[in-house]
Design brief:
Helix content: 25-40%
Number of helices: 10
CATH architecture of the largest domain: 3-Layer(aba) Sandwich
CATH class of the largest domain: Alpha Beta
Order of helices and strands: HEHEHEHEHEHEHEEHHEH
Structural class: alpha/beta
Strand order of the largest sheet: 7-6-5-8-9
Number of strands: 9
Bound molecules: phosphoric acid mono(formamide)ester
Radius of gyration: 19 Å
Shape: globular
Distance between the termini: 21 Å
Strand content: 5-15%
Length: 310
């Protein structure tokens, strides 16, 4: 199936579980054509951008993508100045905002908030991260970066390291990798292991994986190392955060022991889990991921709004 025969017009982008492998590949194929594309195909269209949690990359790359394609963006800079602060429900907020825009982007601290928003409006809704659940456009840009770096999405050995319990970027990407044929290594402190539902999904699809605490025990076998920040804001007990906050730190000396073939990824922001001496390491791809975010989001906006390149 090609991009031409797949229509994603008007679809919501809430969970990677809602999309087939062909649909995922269609987003990536289309993105390649958007690398340097800057024509006003979205002229007159408005993105309603609602962030109830902090963001730099997702917020600004969606705004940049919309504006580079001729569209415009509205939203509040801080959810504390929206009527949510007066007790308005999310559903009512969405039913108001749908009158002002053509597509809605939502980041929210509660799992399921993006699904609720999509059920509250006929406009397409894009999940920009809902609690610990999903972050679909991060996953698309991660896949795009993996394709660029490794030339394929199958037959890879991919290690996830850090906070696998609370990281939505990990949850989204692992769900999606279940569509492909790879071996996964899940490296975390015992208290931050990936929730069982994600392992059940991997089991159901026959994905080979193992869980471990020691990255260096498996490192030599790995093509990609996907690191994550320990998500301080999700811990109910600050004492528990203190116990694991420095669980893993990768630096150049450590990575050089493994070899120079590994691709190092991170959704960012980082705290201390990747040393800055890795920023110019040939395998480091995390700033490439940031750049690819604009490309992917241009393609997503074009496809969901039904405004193709001309
Ligand atoms: N990767 C990511 O979602 O970054 P932001 O929180 O800055 O949007």
């Amino acid at each position: 199936m090609t991009t031409e025969t797949l229509s994603l017009v008007g679809r919501d982008l809430i969970s990677m579980r809602d999309f087939t492998r062909d649909e995922l590949l269609a987003f990536l194929d289309e993105a390649r054509a958007f690398e340097d594309f800057r024509e006003p195909i979205l002229l007159g269209l408005v993105l309603g951008s609602l962030f109830f949690e902090p963001s730099t990359r997702t917020n600004l790359s969606f705004s940049g993508a919309m504006q580079r394609l001729g569209g415009s963006v509205l939203g509040f800079a801080d959810s504390k100045v929206s009527s949510t602060a007066k007790g308005e429900s999310l559903a009512d907020t969405i039913r108001a905002v749908e009158n002002y825009c053509d597509i809605i982007l939502l980041r929210h601290p509660l799992e399921g908030a993006a699904r609720l928003a999509a059920e509250s409006t006929g406009l397409p809704v894009i999940n920009a991260g809902d609690g610990t659940n999903q972050h679909p456009t991060q996953t698309l840009l991660d896949l795009y970066t993996i394709q660029q770096r490794r030339g394929r999405l199958d037959n890879l050995k991919i290690a996830f390291i850090g906070d696998l319990k609370y990281s939505r970027t990990v949850h989204s990407l692992i769900d999606t990798l279940a569509h492909f044929d790879n071996e996964l290594f899940l490296i975390s402190p015992p208290t931050l292991r990936i929730p069982a539902e994600f392992l059940e999904e991997l089991d159901a699809r026959g994905t080979v994986y193992s869980e471990d605490e020691d990255f260096f025990a498996v490192a030599k076998d790995v093509d990609i190392l996907y690191t994550t920040r320990i998500q301080q804001e999700r811990f109910p007990d600050p004492v528990e955060y203190e116990k694991v906050k420095n669980a893993y730190r990768i630096d150049r000396e450590g990575l050089q022991k493994i070899g120079d073939e590994i691709t190092l990824m991170h959704p960012l922001p980082r705290v201390n889990e990747i040393a800055t001496d890795l920023d110019d390491y040939p395998g480091s791809a995390y700033f490439e991921q940031v750049r690819n975010g604009v490309t992917i989001r241009k393609a997503v906006l074009s496809m969901l709004l039904g405004k193709p390149r001309v």
